[in-house]
Design brief:
The protein is about 45% helix and about 5% strand. With about 55 residues, it is mainly α. The chain has one domain. InterPro entries: KilA-N_DNA-bd_domain.
Amino acid sequence: MFQLTNEEVDNWKSQIVMSNSIKMGLRRNPYAFTELGVAMLSSILNTKIPVRNLS
């Protein structure tokens, strides 16, 4: 997971109809996942084995 740069945020906002940061609720640059990170997270969330609490 990484935080988008100002340039990446500007590019991203230009692709959205509602580009007003206040209406979007953005005060800081959002975080994003790489394509590999999404695949890894998806494989964890789709598992049928329960996760036990280790604390």
